[in-house]
Design a protein that fits this description.
Blueprint (H helix, E strand, L loop, with lengths): L1 H10 L7 E6 L4 E5 L6 H15 L5 E5 L5 E5 L6
Antiparallel strand pairs: 1-2, 2-4, 3-4
Length: about 80
């Protein structure tokens, strides 16, 4: 989980318009989607950018939830 948080801190989510904040949960790290008018293009760009950040890490699972939030989970044994 420390790796995920480190990468998100480097990414500086505060510069995003849709995916601006994250919180840690029992399942992993949840990146919260905020409401933003006319967001589909911006949301897609930010979503792809975040996916590309974590796509090379085979031990990090990237899930887009029904509400649009993103859940990042580490494989078992790597949650520290």
């Amino acid at each position: 989980m420390k790796l995920i948080i480190h990468l998100l801190d480097i990414k500086d989510l505060s510069l995003n318009k849709i995916y601006k904040k994250y919180e840690t949960t029992n399942e992993g790290v949840l990146i919260k989607k905020v409401d933003y008018d006319n967001s589909s293009t911006i949301e897609t760009r930010e979503l792809v950018d975040l996916f590309e950040t974590f796509s090379n890490f085979t031990h990090i699972d990237f899930h887009v939830l029904e509400n649009g939030d993103i859940l990042l989970e580490c494989s078992e044994g790597l949650n520290n």
